[in-house]
Design a protein that fits this description.
Length: about 425
């Protein structure tokens, strides 16, 4: 497998016998080079001694030597400075576009590496590397979790930048879209993002002082002011209380004024949702946040403590929704505020990434540091991913650790990217050890 050959070369996990070229010259790998994940040779700037000559250049790796020609490298000038062609099988002699023969070396994957890698891929217990985690050093685990946390923040930064582009360069609008997406709390996240992108915030800004109009626009753009979205058994109650009709009439006027097009109401998911998580309630909370000017980028950037951030996002609903979960769906009257756990999740998934992304955008390191500080201050969320890693022996002390472990599962474990994982590296390098899964 070529991917495993790359791994063995990168980490110099060579078999315990001399390395030689096909013509018998000894090979000493001083520096395996920088792994290239883009077009061009696989490793840049390697330092290799072949015979008595020290070479500095690029290395190309293939499962079979004939892949050199199959991939067209013999006609590509980028491969003219390859100093060594490393292969699992030698079934051809590689040549450059100038006709020069390249030094070639057959690289055998040590049996223990193949055995351990196959075990990782075949394991039915999750995560497959669980057996070695208690034996790993605290320093190694801490450094890997720190890298994963940063990697996750980088991914969220890229997502925010894509929203900025979708919002025609407006960070304010992208901030609202990010906040809205996270109000979906996973299940309705995608629907909330599409909903937020459908609202022309700049156009409706002068209606901001009228909470009823904002609520009408928000619910209307969600497609929830169509009577067909109200369950049949609740339609009479929805029409009887009059609030639905008032919102519907107001939205009809504002829709015409701003040429609004609602999203498809079928995007919303209700199955197995607790009533307090129904889109109607979340949208009503967002309407209040927006009307009270607590959902903008400038307000979020002013939050210097986790407490301030949670207070900023802690919104209740209008009187109608205090006594309803949906149109015509009555409930015991109460404020319907977000729980402390929900507010902490919003800080982790909204304020922290926005601070980090905007800090990068304006080159203000203090915002990035504040974002990381918030993650260390907040306790780790209690979800199945965190519990899984705790059961394996990993210490999870704060929200930053939890974010790192979510990244580890989503981007490495689920995708079987053990060769890119530092824990996977520790697992594979255990020479001649019997590892039980």
């Amino acid at each position: 497998m070529e991917q495993l050959l790359h791994y063995v070369w990168k980490h110099k996990m060579f078999p315990l016998k001399p390395l030689t070229t096909t013509d018998g010259q000894p090979v000493e790998v001083i520096d395996s080079g920088l792994h290239n994940h883009d077009a061009g040779p696989d490793f840049f700037n390697a330092k290799i001694k072949i015979g008595s000559t020290l070479w500095v250049g690029n290395v190309e790796i293939h499962d079979k030597a004939s892949d050199w020609f199959a991939h067209g490298h013999d006609k590509d000038e980028r491969y003219d400075n390859v100093i060594l062609h490393v292969c699992g099988q030698l079934d051809a002699v590689a040549t450059t576009q100038k006709g020069d023969h390249l030094p070639q070396m057959q690289l055998e994957i040590p049996p223990y590496v193949t055995q351990h890698y196959d075990a990782l891929l075949a394991a039915d217990r999750y995560p497959p590397c669980h057996s070695i985690i208690p034996n790993l050093s605290h320093l190694m685990l801490t450094s890997w979790l720190t890298a994963l946390q940063t990697e996750r923040l980088e991914q969220k930064t890229e997502a925010i930048l894509r929203r900025v582009t979708a919002c025609n360069g407006s960070w304010e609008a992208a901030c609202f879209v990010t906040l809205a997406r996270n109000y979906g709390f996973g299940i309705n996240g995608e629907a909330f993002e599409q909903w937020a992108l459908s609202i022309p915030l700049q156009a409706i800004a002068h209606h901001r002082d009228n909470l009823f109009q904002i609520e009408a626009i928000f619910l209307g753009q969600a497609g929830l002011l169509n009577l067909e979205t109200v369950p049949v058994r609740h339609r009479d109650e929805a029409l009887a209380d009059g609030y639905f009709s008032k919102l519907q009439n107001e939205y009809t006027y504002l829709q015409h004024k701003f040429n609004l097009k609602p999203i498809d109401s079928h995007l919303w998911r209700f199955l197995r949702l607790r009533p307090q998580n129904f889109p109607h309630i979340r949208i009503a909370q967002l309407a209040r946040l927006y009307a009270e000017r607590r959902a903008g980028l400038s307000q979020l950037l002013e939050c210097e403590t986790v407490k301030a951030a949670m207070e900023l996002l802690g919104s209740n609903v209008t009187p109608y929704w205090e006594a309803h979960y949906g149109f015509g769906v009555a409930s015991t009257p109460h404020e319907k505020r977000l729980s402390t756990t929900s507010l902490q999740l919003l800080v982790v998934n909204t304020i922290v990434p926005l601070l980090f992304a905007y800090g990068r955008h304006i080159n203000k390191e203090s915002l990035c540091e504040r974002a990381l500080g918030f993650l260390e201050e907040l306790r780790a969320e209690d979800n199945r991913i965190v519990r899984m890693w705790r059961d394996c022996g990993l210490q999870v002390t704060h929200a930053g650790d939890a974010q790192a472990l979510i990244q580890l599962k989503n981007e490495y474990c689920d995708k079987k990217e053990c060769l890119r994982c530092r824990i996977g590296y520790e697992y594979l390098k255990r020479n001649n050890e019997q590892i039980h899964l």
